[in-house]
Design a protein that fits this description.
The structure holds two protein chains of two kinds.
Chain A (H helix, E strand, L loop, with lengths): L1 H7 L2 H6 L14 H4 L4 H4 L2 E6 L8 E7 L2 E7 L12 H4 L1 H6 L8 E3 L7 E2 L2 H18 L1 E5 L2 E12 L6 H13 L2 E5 L1 H5 L1 H11 L16 E5 L3 H4 L1 H12 L3 E6 L4 H5 L2 E4 L5 H14 L5 H7 L22 E2 L4 E2 L21 H8 L1 H5 L20 H8 L5 H8 L3 H13 L7 E5 L1 H4 L4 H14 L10 E3 L8 H4 L6 E2 L3 E2 L9 H8 L9 H13 L23 H9 L5 E5 L3 H4 L3 H9 L3 E6 L4 H8 L1 H5 L10 E6 L8 E4 L4 E5 L12 H15 L9 H5 L15 H9 L1 E2 L17 E2 L34 E2 L27 E4 L4 E4 L77 E2 L21 E6 L15 H4 L6 E4 L1 H7 L6 E5 L4 E8 L6 E3 L2 E3 L1 E5 L20 E2 L11 E7 L6 H13 L11
Parallel strand pairs in A: 7-8, 7-18, 9-10, 9-14, 10-11, 14-15, 18-19, 19-20, 29-35, 30-32
Antiparallel strand pairs in A: 1-2, 2-3, 4-5, 4-20, 6-7, 12-13, 16-17, 21-22, 22-25, 23-24, 26-27, 28-36, 29-37, 31-32, 31-37, 33-34
Chain B lengths: L11 E6 L8 H10 L25 E8 L25 E8 L7 H5 L5 E3 L5 E3 L10 H4 L6 E2 L6 E2 L5 H5 L5 H5 L5 E5 H17 L6 E3 L12 E5 L19 H27 L1
Parallel strand pairs in B: 1-10
Antiparallel strand pairs in B: 1-8, 2-3, 4-5, 6-7, 9-10
Classes of the chains: A alpha/beta, B alpha+beta.
Chain lengths: 1074, 279
């Protein structure tokens, strides 16, 4: 009886009945409390997903109730994240279901003053029309009489936040349209890693996984703020620490990472090569290398050609052309041999030259010769001796003078490295964009690679180079690239050559030995995936359909093209260059010079609204009514609203399921690009123009979901994996053929859909497998988790030590076995020696662990691939407070520069005007925000944690400049002026470099004027000056002036920058010396 | 759902090991997401990376950041203060981070003073506010020796950490502990946590982190021990924690006794007066 229950449930009665005499427990439970139900158990479904923020790729459980996402939390089964999430991952529910996301298509008509609503289908039709028109006008059949077959009037940017399947279709469609200016966040974040690791070891991705760091005896975090940028991966550093490992953090800025390190080493921003070179010198000079490893597995014994000249006092290698500012790398090659790089600068004229030169006549059969080795390491031109001479000047004194690191501290780090390397122990490097974003960024990664090879730390548990990447699928958008210079699987995008057929391409780029020797099979399979039955042996598999490059077409070159008026249309796919790219002003002026702009994002980011509220509107330099640019804003679907794969920082391809359909006009990029392609093909269906053939012959049939017309991501993944002539799914790239009998959209992802099963959706709990987690999702290549792991065993195939065993040769079984999938042909014995004249994989000996390399060895010296030299050299950043004290060249002579009135550089240190910008700046991420802020500044739970842009300064600098803690500061460079709240902190410290003291200012870079948490953007200060191999911008080291108080408003803002430029005497030639 | 028999369930709690806290604030966000705690304003405090300022009705987990010129364990910060006149002495530096939360006291004053029964001790030994009962009288606010429980101004009622009472009932750990990337926040049976914490302190001491000490773990302290206790690397005051909290209702029995005595005295005086007047 309800009345009875009502009476008995009366708290007083419950209390008196003795259950809870004091009335502080069960007696006072309320009806509301009784009704509480955890929504995790009330959910209708739990959907397996992956965090959309950084590249740690934490597995998520998405709880769905009544068609709504009600909770998102970590999946405890995941071996890599163990159910944990950082603040950003924890805010996923608010990110995806919050009110900050736009729902409808918005349209800004040319010269319009505000947004208008537009029907989604109409908007799609309009964009298709714009592409057709702009493409016609920007078409180029040839340049200087060499065939290019391309469209220069359209560019795209973005992809690292998208699924692999989306990137695949974007690259496929745009390439078929002849659009080559396709770029994404990978360009501005980790392109240097791809060059550095790729040329050194054969693959441009992290060699290991964060979970393996638990086995390290020493972890050196340098160029990485891991605890802040990748908190969940940092658990493995803490795990290592708990097991007794030493953690060292080398950084210009004491961050939360430093606080947890055993040793913090403050370093002057932009001087890491001097530091790493110093350690290399310490190891070589004292013969503390892992000699057996070095002799067997690196190119230390290889003899280099006579033409090679090291930098010496002049600071340039042989082959430099001061006119073009570029190197001809042919003099860097091995003696009697020509080897192709596995990464970096490929398919350029320099690669082809040896075919016709005297050098190839001297080379042995095969046209390319075999390297000569001196296993005594005494030949004056062997790599070992060259390396020894090259780094001899990198003494502890030089390190102190250049980096500001006291000699005893430097030697402490040297000793830690040596003591924690060798048979029984291993050391790992962890780096992020602190290393990559420099005008010599690729060489930062090379320097670390050299050290790890010398110490024998590659391919071994607890060793390696752990590249911490920043977006959910930025590794994927490098592998299946929306990048101008590569095709899927790091096949180089062809350059325009006089003899541009497939044979010439393959002979110029495919290494004679190793798995790149099969490049033709990878390329033909890609062309078969794209052009299907049209691609035949007779027509060179449509190789001619690919548009051709004529130099650098990076996102920064695109900006220059925009400013030159040659780009009509620009597609921004989840990227915010007005905040995230160097020199924001250049970005906005570039966009303002386009006829049309497409922005696909969650919210109205700065790159979508600059025409009505950008800084140039406030300063009066732009007037909304004068801006022609037509803007289409498409609201994007969240990761919970689509299915597909992200590739995380450890090359792990993880499938995320769809939880719900996207609402209103929100659509996936898969939907957008597929239906855009469909429209374009319909519009051009009857065309007789040969320029349209690639588009019309493109395979563009994917099953569509009924109702939503969403293309099947699984079908796209199947195409990426590839099939044979019978339509059966391939299980490994070793099955790919050069005769057109196989198709594969990305050869390194072949196996992701082996046996017709989506291997990327595998979710065997971490508790049921070892630390490599090889049964969770799928990693390229061939599900190998630690790359080059053949090197974990000695040449005879035995582990270097039991403590560091990973894979080994089991003679009884006749196979490589162990804890990980061997990164080696499973049945190739250590005793295997290639027969005379062997090519491709057969030319890799049983003792060659670097199977992608042309000589099977790790490259201490890179005879090809790195545009600014075979060995890393310390050069000062483009804008530096110090002169280069090592040699005559101040800066990397081969860096890419972009002279423009809005992109001026600072005077050389020590010359008049240099004192105007006296302070060093370094930049970094905060835990609470994400990249350019599009996924955090609009998210209240994150915004409130770091609500304002601030600068971090030392008490000493604050005293010198009169900066008040909590007040405001104005920061000025030759590019722009910004304001920031002042954080005076002991974490910033001035550095003593001989007779000089250098002050560093720390700037987090997430802010912009839009969103909920707002502030000026650091990139207003930075310049466009790039690494020549990776085309990455230098934003980790620059110089500024700082003054107390807020910046000027309106036209006075520009006037202040102008006044600084005048005072510093800056002209169009300032800082341009090669 | 039937309420489990309280005698069968061990007391559950948090052990927050601040020596491994990386100050990421995942706990703050995970808590807000799960419990629907509102965002409470954009205030840049300039106090290191702490912009949440403290526990409140709208912040149930709060990460404190303390920058100090002091040493901790073997941490070598190598920050050379060029401005320091006394050279090397100022190189000492440490950055402490600690996630604070409601202590779920053994003797919970908030619970003692609540006149409506809005606050109760759950079967897990945790202290939970029942929003459907709370009338916003606010007696609990000054009663809390830690200054944790707080009124939400636009709502009038008080809110604080529930130790995710709803999740506990279905065998799930609290949202903050689940998210914590480095396991700084550990959830479990309180007795187990106390054991684990003791071992952790021993290990840290052996490793030279002599500053490590526990806070709130001792059942004989002024609140009878906390259900959520901490491993700290400095004095509690440094983290904004009271050094020797005492349940504010500790003197209540004595006060009652005194009151009773006074009342009896007054009664006696009254009786005597009455008797005298009659005479």
């Amino acid at each position: 009886m309800p009345e009875r229950r009502l009476i008995t449930s009366w708290p007083l009665l419950r209390q008196l009945r003795g259950e809870d005499p004091s009335g502080r427990g069960a007696a006072v439970r309320s009806a509301g409390t009784d009704a509480i139900r955890a929504r995790t158990v009330e959910a209708d479904r739990v959907v397996k997903s992956v965090c959309p923020y950084c590249a740690v790729g934490c597995a998520q459980n998405v709880f769905v109730k009544d068609g709504r996402v009600v909770q998102v939390e970590g999946d405890p089964d995941a071996p890599h994240s163990r159910g944990r999430l950082c603040p950003k991952g924890s805010a996923t529910l608010q990110l995806t279901t919050g009110s900050a996301r736009e729902q409808y298509v918005l349209y800004r008509r040319p010269y319009g003053s505000d947004w208008e609503r537009l029907d989604l289908e109409t908007a799609m039709d309009m964009v298709a029309d714009r592409i057709v028109d702009s493409r016609r006008r920007g078409w180029e059949w040839e340049v200087d009489s060499v065939r290019t077959r391309r469209c220069m009037s359209i560019a795209a940017l973005g992809g690292a936040t998208l699924d692999n399947e989306e990137n695949y279709l974007i690259k496929k469609l745009l390439t078929a349209l002849g659009v080559i200016q396709v770029e994404n966040q990978a360009r501005v974040c980790h392109s240097s890693t791809v060059v550095g690791l790729g040329t050194s070891f054969g693959r441009g991705a992290s060699s290991t996984l964060p979970a393996d760091l638990q086995h390290s005896d020493l972890i050196v975090l340098e160029g990485s703020n891991m605890a802040e940028a990748h908190p969940v991966a940092f658990q493995w550093v803490m795990e290592a620490k708990a097991r007794g490992a030493t953690v060292v953090h080398v950084d210009p800025h004491y961050s939360r990472t430093s606080a947890l390190a055993d040793v913090f080493v403050p370093i002057r921003a932009g001087s890491d090569i001097a530091f790493l070179g110093g350690i290399i010198n310490y190891v070589i000079a004292n013969e503390l290398d892992f000699r057996e490893y070095v002799l067997a597995y690196t190119n230390a014994p290889t003899i280099v050609g006579e033409e090679f000249q090291d930098v010496g006092a002049d600071g340039v290698f042989s082959g430099f052309d001061p006119e073009t500012g570029a190197y001809d790398p042919s003099s860097w090659q091995y003696e009697g041999a020509f080897v192709a790089a596995a990464s970096g600068q490929r398919d350029q004229e320099g690669n082809l030259a040896p075919l016709d030169s005297e050098r190839s006549a001297n080379a042995s059969e095969g046209g390319r010769g075999d390297p000569t080795l001196d296993l005594t390491l005494t030949h004056p031109r062997c790599v070992w001796q060259i390396l020894k001479r090259h780094y001899a000047e990198y003494t502890p004194e030089m390190v102190e003078r250049t980096c500001g690191i006291p000699q005893d501290l430097f030697l402490t780090v040297c000793r830690l490295f040596v003591e924690n390397s060798g048979r029984e122990r291993t050391a790992a490097f962890v780096h992020g964009v602190g290393w990559t974003q420099h005008t010599i960024g690729s060489q930062y990664i090379r320097a670390a690679s050299i050290l790890q090879l010398l110490l024998g730390n590659m391919g071994r548990p607890g060793g390696g180079v752990m590249a911490m990447r920043g977006h959910a699928s930025i590794q994927g958008s490098s592998d299946i690239p929306t990048l101008f210079d590569t095709l899927p699987g790091y096949i180089p995008m062809p350059h325009a050559h006089a003899h541009g057929d497939l044979d010439a391409f393959v002979s110029g780029d495919a290494a004679k030995r190793g798995f790149w020797g099969n490049m033709r099979a990878y390329m033909v399979s890609l062309l078969k995936a794209w052009y299907g039955a049209t691609a035949t042996a007779e027509n060179d598999f449509c190789f001619d359909y690919l548009p051709r490059l004529t130099g650098s077409h990076s996102t920064y070159d695109t900006v220059m093209e925009q400013l030159a008026g040659r780009i009509e249309g620009y597609l921004l796919l989840g990227q915010n260059p007005a905040v995230g790219s160097a020199n924001s002003r250049m970005q906005r002026f570039g966009m303002a010079n386009c006829k049309w702009l497409v922005v696909r994002d969650f919210s109205l980011i700065e790159s979508a609204t600059w025409w009505k509220d950008g800084p140039e509107i406030a300063s009066g330099e732009m007037r909304t009514e004068d801006i022609e640019t037509e803007v289409f804003f498409f609201p994007a679907a969240a990761h919970t609203e689509k299915e597909g794969t992200f590739t995380n920082t450890q090359r792990m391809v993880q499938w995320h399921e769809k939880a719900i359909d996207p609402a209103a006009d929100r659509r996936s990029d898969l939907w957008f690009i597929y239906h855009l392609g469909r429209r374009l093909r319909e519009r051009l269906a009857g065309s007789a123009d040969a320029a349209d053939r690639p588009l019309l012959d493109l395979t563009w049939d994917y099953p569509l979901a009924s109702g939503t017309n969403e293309p099947s991501a699984e079908a796209v993944l199947a195409e990426i994996n590839g099939w044979n002539a019978d339509g059966e799914m391939l299980s490994s790239y070793t099955e790919l053929a050069a005769d057109g009998s196989t198709a594969s959209g990305c050869w390194i992802y072949c196996g992701a859909y082996a046996d017709g099963v989506n291997q990327t959706a595998r979710r065997t709990p971490g508790s049921e497998q070892n630390w490599t987690g090889s049964q969770w999702a799928w990693a390229w290549p061939a599900n190998r988790r630690i790359l080059y792991n053949r090197a974990s065993a000695d040449p005879e195939g035995r582990p270097w030590s039991e403590r560091k065993a990973l894979v080994w040769w089991d003679a009884a079984e006749g196979r490589w076995v162990g804890h990980d999938t061997p990164d080696f042909e499973a049945d190739k014995p250590p005793s295997y020696r290639p027969p005379e004249g062997a090519t491709g994989p057969a030319a890799i000996a049983g003792t060659d662990p670097f199977i992608m390399q042309a000589d099977g060895r790790g490259w201490l010296y890179a005879p090809a691939g790195v545009g600014d030299g075979p060995l890393p050299v310390h050069y000062e950043p483009q804008d530096s407070p110090l002169p280069n004290r090592l040699h005559r060249r101040q800066r990397n002579p081969a860096r890419q520069l972009y002279p423009h009135p809005n992109n001026r550089y600072h005077p050389d240190p020590g010359t008049p005007g240099s004192e105007v910008f006296p302070f060093a700046v370094t930049t970094y991420r905060l835990t609470e925000h994400f990249t350019a802020g599009g996924m955090s500044r609009w998210t209240p739970y994150l915004a409130e944690l770091q609500p304002e842009f601030f600068c971090e300064v030392s008490p000493e600098l604050a005293g010198e400049r009169g900066l008040e803690h909590g007040g405001w500061a104005t920061l000025v460079s030759a590019r722009g002026v910004i304001e920031a709240r002042v954080m005076v902190t002991d974490r910033m410290t001035p550095l003593r470099l001989g007779d000089r003291i250098v002050h560093t200012i720390g700037l987090p870079y997430h802010w912009g004027p839009n969103g909920y948490a707002r502030g000026d953007s650091m990139n207003e200060l930075s310049s466009m000056a790039l690494d020549p191999s990776s085309h990455i911008q230098e934003v980790k080291a620059l110089t500024v002036d700082i003054q107390p108080g807020r910046r000027p408003r309106g036209p006075a803002r520009l006037a202040l920058v102008q006044e600084y430029r005048t005072r510093a005497g800056i002209t169009e030639t300032t800082g341009m010396a090669r | 759902m039937s309420v489990p028999d309280a005698t069968e369930i061990p007391r559950m709690g948090f052990f927050t090991d601040t020596s491994v806290c990386i100050g990421c604030k995942a706990c703050e966000v995970a808590c807000k997401e799960w419990n629907g705690v509102p965002e409470d304003g954009l205030v840049w405090t300039g106090h290191s990376h702490d912009n949440s300022q403290g526990l409140s009705a709208d912040t149930w987990r709060h990460v404190a950041f303390i920058e100090q010129r002091a040493t901790v364990g073997h941490h070598q910060p190598n920050l050379q203060r060029t401005g320091a006149s006394d050279g090397d002495t100022d190189q000492a530096f440490r950055w402490l981070m600690a996630s604070d939360v409601c202590k779920h006291c053994t003797h919970a004053a908030c619970l003692d003073v609540c006149p409506t029964g809005a606050i109760f001790r759950s079967e897990f030994g945790t202290v939970v506010v029942q929003a459907d009962v709370c009338n916003g009288c606010g007696y609990c606010v000054p009663a809390c020796p830690y200054g944790v429980i707080d009124k939400r101004p636009d709502d009038g009622r008080v809110f604080k950490c529930t130790l995710c009472y709803d999740r506990l009932q279905v065998g799930q750990e609290p949202a903050c502990a689940k998210a914590c990337p480095t396991d700084s926040i550990q959830f479990g049976v309180l007795d187990d946590l106390r054991e684990r914490a003791t071992l952790r302190v021993e290990r840290l001491h052996a490793d030279g982190v002599t500053e490590a000490r526990l806070y709130g773990h001792d059942p004989s302290d002024g609140v009878g021990g906390d259900g959520a206790f901490f491993l700290l690397l400095d004095e509690p005051e440094v983290y904004g924690l009271p050094p020797a909290p005492v349940v504010t209702t500790a003197d209540l029995p004595a006060m009652w006794r005194h009151s009773a005595l006074a009342a009896a005295g007054l009664l006696l005086i009254g009786l005597l007066s009455a008797a005298g007047a009659r005479r």
